[in-house]
Amino acid sequence: MAALRSPDGCPWDRKQTPRTLRPFLLEETYEALDAIDRGDFDDLKGELGDVLFQCVFHSQIAAERRRFDIADAIQSVVDKLIRRHPHVFLADGRPLPRGRKHGTASTPKAVLQQWEQLKAQEQAASGREKRVLSGIPRALPSLLRAHEIGSRVAAVGFDWNQTTDVVDKIDEEVRELREALHESPARAAEELGDLLFSLANLARRLDIEPESALREANDKFTRRFDQLEAWMAARGRSVHGAPLTELEDAWQAVKALPARDATPATSARTPTARTPSRRRSQSPRRRRDRS
Length: 291
Prior knowledge:
By secondary structure, the protein is an all-alpha fold. The chain contains eleven helices and no strands. About 5% of the residues are buried. Mean pLDDT is about 85; it is low at about 260-290.
């Protein structure tokens, strides 16, 4: 990377900044997630390499500005893992002696609670103002951010007593959304946001990651609509210009078909010609159950 950024290196690489690289880091992360969802370890190997490349790239720019280098970044996470796992490591990084237990972090839930407590202690020791919700990136996908917000406040006891209480809250938000539909678009948007936030909290209570659940629902709908188009095409019909009643009948017919291979639909991930990952273009980028 130092060679690529050198005066005799690549003009494209030399021109980049953390801000211009931001969309590439995001894109590579989502491509790695896609490989995980598909269970494709061959693709995952390459996608993780692309994510690692972005880490090296950002670290090289930081090194040129005399801020940190890739070794510093790696050491930072090593130190954090040691600090946040006192039930596994001694303070000097050596593993705890076999058979020796430290603390009460014996379950995944207890480990998470300990992690948050240690994180809060570190923030207090550094002089940073201690806030339960500090550090949650605003750039997170909104459903994921809502899930994390709910998890953080639940860790300090600010949560519903029972999962059914969350369902009652969702019913309340739906009623308020119905009323807001007759008021203004802004009011409807606010109530829809409240509804989505409550749904994310229901997912948390059910131990479901909402972003993944919605992604799977998107894939399921895409597969079925692909099947609907094929079903109509086999009968000499097209979805374009077809009346809603015909589309509804076709949808129900497709839903009644035997389950098919659950691989992602072609339209969900259409192959495209790809240039090397770091050199991609930087141009700006009702009536019946349909579940």
